[in-house]
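User: Last request for today: this protein with 0RA, please.
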Amino acid sequence: MSDDYTADSIQVLEGLEAVRMRPGMYLGDPHDGTALHHCVWEVVDNAVDEHLANRNDRIDVIMHDDGSVSVKDYGRGIPVDIHAEFGISAAEVIMTKLHAGGKFDNAAYKVSGGLHGVGVSAVNAVSAWLEMTIERDGAVHQQRYERGEPASALGVVGKTDATGTTIRFRPDLTIFSDIVDFDFDILDTRFRETAFLNAGLHIQLIDERGEEPHVVDHHYEGGIKQFVQRLNDRRQVLHEDVIHIAGSREIELGEVSIDLAMQWSDAFSEQIQCYTNIIRNRDGGTHMTGLRGALTKSVNAYAKSRNLLKNLNGLSGEDVREGLSAIVSVKHPDPSFSSQTKDKLVSSEVTSIVETIVYERLGEFFEENPSIARGIVEKAVLASRAREAAKKARDMTRRKGVLEGGGLPGKLADCQSRDPTECEVYLVEGDSAGGSAKTGRDRRIQAILPLRGKILNVERQQRNLAKVFQNNEIQTMVRALGAGVGNDPEDEGSFNPEKLRYHRIIIMTDADVDGAHIRTLLLTFLWRFMKRAIMEGHVYIAQPPLYQVSKGRMTRYAFSEEERDLFIDELRGGSETAKIGVQRYKGLGEMNPDQLWETTMDPEQRTMLKVTVGDAEAADRLFEILMGEDVVDRRAFIETHAKEVTNLDI
Ligand code: 0RA
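Assistant: Here's the final one, the structure of the complex with 0RA:
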């Protein structure tokens, strides 16, 4: 950290017009909330940097009822001395020049930093107004900006013994459209993550926009260890204590440090979250590669040395990582990423740094904790056997398909078009609804696959995958979709969306509890065995109407109770005596083919919900709990997380 700071060391790049002209370039999409929230991250990241420089242990964020947000830190305060070249204060340079700031160059080791590292000036540029209050050198300094321009000079407004910076800004609504309100949950989630990654830092969030202020405080002395505990809070863990490994290595530019926390549970999925300089790397990268290498090597080495593998040749990386939750946090003086969004770390030296440190320390840990080590090996051995059995069953299914002519399943009513991009397949609950759908459809582009009864709950068959591949309904679906099954990238028979015969897979079930259950079973299957279909946006949920409201020959379909009541009033037209018929559709089978087409299947009129997954780890946990073995836990979860459950149903 360069403590010999002077105003002149700030480098100046460009003015702020660029940001106002093209906010998307600097802050992300200004229309979907991305750029709006990015403004908060940018300001908070500066405060986090002060924490990383050991100058700040607290950040207070307030969502004000005038639409502004303020971020107060207790750091050194932005420097207020006059910049020799510009003749204005360093603070004003930082606020009005893009990329300016002595601590933004790498010598000063800025480890936090926003998505594009654009600095607070970008926030100033897109703010209707911004007020900066600096406590430093015994005085309270203040300056106001409007649309990025100073509206007053930086002046002293009082005395103080404290130090720190408060930045309060209101986004310019001529730049942000559609979404102009800050979302409490988005801020809260991000600050929880930031607090986990910065052990000891307090982040307080206050929402003053409602009747009563809503206050949350994030503070984790245990840092990423507590993060891992939270990831596993609904899982049965294999070992009580989270494994914690920290270490560092010198490179030419400075020091690379790694902080790793991990814990195995009896779950089947793995969740490893990677960070570089406090920024999440969603696609992993070299730290992930190093960690995976070390895990596979250490677990195999231990298993072999204790003769725990018996007739197995070795454990694969996937076997070893089954049920693992981990957080890897790397600090690097000058990291490289594969893209602007920093989703993947590519600095190649990190692989071996992480691999060596983890291999060494994990080996020691296993030696010191033999019963934990044995538990981890046993779990990996089970995973390996299950995978082997599943592979056999799948190959058998595939061969059987070929023997039987490899054709399409008899139950499928295929469409005429052979262009997958325009084709869709309806997975329909029950034969009678399937019949209506077959008659009512546009047979050129719409295929119908009726599914009988409840499909297998695959979440409970993770140790008996053979049963999944032998299941009739599942085989039928796999053959109809024609794109393979399984998520193992090393298996050529795995699901590949490029081979999909239909680009839209539409789940159509009754609008009742059973229908919701079948839909969840289908989604569970798709998530566990055709994950990319969901990730790449091929899966939809049909929306059949709940009510038919009619008067004479006039008919309206309602998709909610509110809509039903609205239509009743509308058809009544103020007459109390009008005879209005209301029919509740309990199942798709109650609709005739024309009605089904008109309300639910006609691409011109229907509404469908696209299944999206914002956070794959959260989806993994949700399916585990919703569909897994633990019924008591599931009830409790559904009660406390009703919102997520509804979202999942979408
Ligand atoms: C430049 C240099 C120094 C601190 C900061 C900027 C700084 C920026 C922000 C933004 C929000 N809070 C902040 N706190 C500090 C180092 C100053 C020194 O060495 O005294």
